[in-house]
Description:
Layout: H1 5-9, H2 23-34, H3 54-66, H4 80-96, E1 104-108, H5 111-129, E2 139-143, H6 148-157, E3 160-164, H7 174-180, E4 185-191, H8 203-213, E5 217-220, H9 228-233, E6 248-254, E7 266-270, H10 273-279, E8 281-283, E9 291-293, H11 302-339, E10 344-346, E11 354-359, H12 364-373, E12 379-381, E13 386-390, H13 399-416
Parallel strand pairs: 2-3, 2-4, 4-5, 5-6
Antiparallel strand pairs: 1-7, 6-7, 8-9, 10-11, 11-13, 12-13
Helix pairs in contact: 3-11, 4-11, 5-6, 5-10, 12-13
This protein binds pyridoxal-5'-phosphate.
Amino acid sequence: MAQTSQSATRRPRSPFPPGGRHWPDLEEEMKARSAKDKDFRHGRTAIFFFYAEQEAYEIGKKAYYEHFSENALGNGRAYAGLASMERDVLDYGLDMLHAPNTGRGVFTTGGTESIFLGMKAARDFHRATREKRAGRRHNIVMPVSGHPAFDKAAIVMDVDIRRAPLRADRRVDVAAMRELVDADTMAIVGSAPCFPHGVIDPIEEIGRIADEHGVWLHVDSCVGGWIAPFFERIGRDIPTFDFRVPGVRSMSADLHKFGFCPKPASTVFFRSSEDVDRSTFRLGAWPSGLYTTTTFCGTRPGGAVAAAWAVLNHMGTSGYENAARGLAAMVDAYVGGLTAIEGLEMWAKPDVTILNFGSNQFDIYAVAEQMLKRDWLPGLTSVPRGMQTMLSMQHAPVMDQYLSDLRESIAAVRQAGAVGTIKATY
Length: 426
Ligand SMILES: *Cc1c(COP(=O)(O)O)cnc(C)c1O
C-alpha cells in the first residue's frame, strides 16, 4: 500500500511514559529542550512575544499561577472572584474603545475566537434581518491584508470571503471595497492596524459603506486594540477606529498582544447587548440542563483572566501611556535607522508598532536569510516582498545590534547578488 509522505517521514512515536519522574528532573529536561530556542526575551524574534516592563511581566505571571487551576467556565457560580475580574477587564475595554452604555464584551482565548464570535453575531443578524436569496451564499468583504482568522470563520460557517485591494499606502481601497458589497454581504471588515503592513484602514470611510448598506462592520484591532488608544492619548496621529465611528458594530482586541497580558487572552466587544446575545450559545438539549457560554470554549483558563485583571490594574492609563511613549520613540528610532540604510525602504508608514520594509535594489529575502544566520528570527511579507517586525520593549536595547547586523547582511547580499529562497510563513 502506498504510504503518504507524512507517514513515511514521521518521527518515531513517543511511548506513553511509565511515570515517577519528579520536578527537578523534569525541569532540567524542559530547560534542555528549550535551550536552543530563539532568545525571544532579548528581542531576537520579530513576532510572537510582547513585553512592556518587568513588573507587569512578573505581576502577570504571579496572578496567573495564583489562579491557574480555576475555571472561567460557569458564569461565576464557583469562582465569583474570577467572574468579577472578568467583568472589570471588559468594562475597561469598553471604556477605552468609547463604546456606548449599551456595549458589551466577551473575554476569549485569542484573536481567532474573538473574530469567530464577531462573525457569528454578524451572520445571525444578517439572517434575522434579510430575506434568504435562493441559491446565494453569504459573503464577508475584507481587505487583502485581513487576518486568516476570518477565512477560518468563513470556512466553518460555509460563507465566502471577498478581498478588496489596497491603496498605495497599504490601507484598503474603500471604493473597491464598496464594489464588492452586495445584498448577501453579512459583514465588512477593517483592521486597526493590519498585521502585514501595520497601517490602520480608513475605518470612518468604511463606516459609511456600513451605513449605506445597513451592513455589519467589524474592526479587527486584535494586534493594536489595547495600545493604539494610548498612542492617541499621548498625541500620536491615530485615525479614529473605534466605536466613535457610528457604523462599527463589533471589535476584536487581544490582551495577549499589546495589552501585555499572559496568553491566552483576548476580547471582543459589541455595540449593543442584542449583538452579544447573537454571539452567545444557549444550549439545553442534553441531560445536564441549560449550557450557556458567550465563548466557543467551554473550560477556560482562570489564570488568564486573573492575570489580565492584575496587569491592567498595575499598568492603568499611566502605564499604557508610558508604554506607548516608549514604543513610539522606539518605532521612530528604528524607522530612522532603517531609512538611513542605502536602498532600504519602508513599505508603509507605521501607525503603531509594526514595521514592514524592503528594497528595489537587492533581494530582501536574501537579507532575511542572512539575519537568520545571525540568530534573528525575521517576519516576512510576500506582497510586497518584505521584512516585517512587531516592536515591543525587548527590542529597544538591541536596536543598534539589529541595525548593524542588518547593514552587514545587506552588504553580503549586495556583494553576492544573492536571491533568497526563504518562504513567507507566519
Ligand atoms: C494576531 C491577530 C489575529 C489573531 O489572533 P490570535 O490571538 O493569534 O488568534 C487576528 N487579527 C490580527 C490583526 C492579528 O494581529
